[in-house]
Structure formats: C-alpha cells, structure tokens
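Hi R.,

Here's the input for the flavin-adenine dinucleotide complex you asked about:
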Amino acid sequence: MAANEHLLDAQAAAERAELDTQILDAIDRWVEKEVRPIAREYDQADRYPEELVEQMKELGLFGATIGTEYGGLGLSAGTYAKVVARICEVWMAPTGIFNSHLIMANCVERAGTADQKAHYLPRFATGELRGGIGLTEPNAGTDLQAIRTVAQREGDDYVINGTKTWISNGIKGNCLAVLTKTDPTAEPPHRGMSMFLCEKGPGFTVGKKLEKLGYRSIDSAELVFQDYRVSKDKLIGEVEGQGFKQAAGGLELGRINVAARGVGMARGTLALALAYAKERKTFGKPIAKHQAIQLKLADMSTRAEAAALLVQDAADRFDSGQRCDLEAGRAKLFASEAALENSTEAMRIFGGYSYSTEYEIERFYRDAPLMCIGEGTNEIQRIIIAKQLVERS
Ligand SMILES: Cc1cc2nc3c(=O)[nH]c(=O)nc-3n(C[C@H](O)[C@H](O)[C@H](O)COP(=O)(O)OP(=O)(O)OC[C@H]3O[C@@H](n4cnc5c(N)ncnc54)[C@H](O)[C@@H]3O)c2cc1C
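And here is the predicted structure with flavin-adenine dinucleotide in place:
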C-alpha cells in the first residue's frame, strides 16, 4: 500500500472517531434532557414515549447501524454498543424501540437483494418504516425450527398464516421481518424456513398487547397473520430456505445489543447505589463507609466494567466481518447476569427504600431479568459458547 493511502486511511479513521464522539455526546445530552426526566413516570404508567420516538428519528437512531449510502449513520457495532449502554444506564426500555428494528435492517443489509436494500434501508433509516423481528410463536421460542407459521406460494404472492408472540414494536411498528416455513415438510426443518418483510395491512393484525413485569412503556404484542398476502419480492434475498440463517445472523448483532444493555444497566445500578450509599447514614456514618457495602460496590463496578470489555471484544470481531457467536454469546451471558446481579445488590444497598416506587432502583430490578431471556436465553448462550469452543479448538 502506498504511503499516501495509509495517510488517507488514518485520516478517515480519525474523522470517523471524531464523528462517533460527537454522536455519543449528543446521546448523553439527549438522555439527560429528555429520557431521565420521564423514565419513572412513563414506566409506572406503562405509557409509550411517542416524543422520544420523534427525537430518536432526529438523532438518526433508526439508522444507527445502517450504511451511510442508505442514509444511515453507519456506526460500528462498537460505537452502537456504547450508544445503547449510555441510554440503558438511565432507562433500558427506549432502546427496544430501535434495537430489534436494526436487527430487521441488518437482515436486509446482509441478505437482501439490491432492490430490497434500495427500497427498504433508506425508509428504515429515517424511521418512516419501523418495526422489528417476528420469530417467536406461542409454542416455539428457543426451538425456532418448531415454528408453525406457514407462507404458501400462490402465483407471484405468498399467503402467510400463523401467530407470533412477544413481538417488540408489534403495535407501534408498521413493518416486521417474519420467520415462516415455506416448506413445512423440509428435513432438517431450517431448510424450509424463509423470512419476509411484512408491512401492516389486511390479514396482519395485532392479537393483543402483552402486559409485562418490566420493560414497560414499550409495546410487546401477539400478532396474527390470517391469509396475509405478500408479493414474492418481499422474501428476503428472494431465495427460499435462507430464513433461519438470516435470523441467526441478525441475532449476532442482537446479542451484542442485549449485552450492551446489560453493561448500561450494570453501570446504572452502581451509580444509583453509590449515590445512595454516600448519602444514607447508619451508626453515625454513610453506609458507603461500612465494609460490607464497600464489598458490594467493588463487585458491582468490576462486573460492569468486565462486561463492557466483553462487549467491546464481541463488537470488534463483528466489525471485522468475522463470525462472532462465541464472543457475542460470552458478552451477552456475562453482561446480562451482571445487570441482574447488580440490580439485586443495589436493592440490598437501598434497604427498605428499594421497595419504593419513588426510587428508580426498582425499575432496574424489574427490567434486568429480560436481558437473561431475550436474543437467546442464557442457557442457550452457554450451549453456543461451548459448541464454538469445541469447533474452534
Ligand atoms: C419482553 C420480551 C420481548 C421479546 N421480544 C421479541 C421480539 O421482538 N421478537 C421475537 O421473535 N421474540 C421476542 N421475545 C421472545 C424471546 O426471544 C423468547 O421468549 C426467548 O427466545 C425464549 O423462548 P421461550 O420463551 O419460548 O422459552 P422456551 O424456549 O420455552 O424455554 C424455556 C426454558 O427452557 C430452556 N431451554 C430451552 N431449550 C433448551 C435446551 N436445548 N437446552 C437447555 N435449556 C433449554 C430455556 O433456556 C428456558 O430456560 C421477547 C420476549 C420478551 C419476554
């Protein structure tokens, strides 16, 4: 490589780093000004944060990881993870509005046809079309090959019938990447699975809104497809049998994202606990001066920062274009457990006040368990990690 090419590369990297810093600063300002003041009230009322959606559009979050050629911000997975973590330090739920949306976009960007990319990605990036991914069904979550939703070819169309459940953005979103079976008799079943881009319309309806322990304010829904007709050019990649692979590929970014949420929550609970421990006094001194509390704070801080390093490791590998299910699995497993453990330890530090809805900490305690379930449960992460260890050794 010529010397001037090295210089140009270095210049481009410096410009990119400067842009990433500006984006993270803008996120910090937005979180403090707009997200923190409404988090407790909106969560408790289970109110959808419409105004945050408009602000997210302006910030470009619906196109965060979409390439700049399609109008996105083109963030690396590393920077994207930092964005997610910073929001989750304060309130995890709003990240759900763009996280699964970006997994849908990632599936199109990686596996879509040129026409699909040209048509969808700019609309995803602005948030004109937004939604998420529809994989889970009432009878099948972990075991995705057991799904029952069928897409049957009829002329130039497919007709989709089935029910999806637990779908984030299922009510407020208008577009969903839906995993189906185009050949329900295929063996192994994943060979007969295909993913479609489905926009809301006749035959695609909301069955019901699901009420939840945490992750409130964000719509989770059961969705019903009844003779929903979609043209064949909405089949991602326009080749049948690729859906399972496309979904699994999208979940690598999804796992980095859930891990980043875990980092944010692990840090957020530490920040709340630390502030409280410095202020609350027992036996004549702040509880932060009691060694039993100090041990908790030390462990919480160590867990949060170890999780951040695992997320960075997974994001670096993702950004280098390599398979990263081992790294993303490790990050997701550790960071989600860190969020859960830190929220529990913070509850202990807050004592009786942890039980009060006047404090923020109880929200973290209700939100954290989801990190251990979404994008593949932590039991499954362990299986993925072990398989990869064996395969790569
Ligand atoms: C708030 C929320 C939002 C969600 N958003 C979405 C979304 O946007 N889109 C979407 O498609 N889905 C979504 N989901 C669904 C989520 O991905 C599933 O709940 C998750 O994959 C687990 O599936 P399941 O609930 O069917 O559990 P199951 O698969 O029934 O698992 C039950 C238990 O068995 C364990 N288990 C299963 N198989 C094995 C095995 N082989 N070995 C060891 N243990 C095993 C699991 O780890 C778990 O502990 C969401 C869920 C929630 C709660």
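One thing worth noting: The first helix runs from residue 3 to 45.

Cheers,
M.
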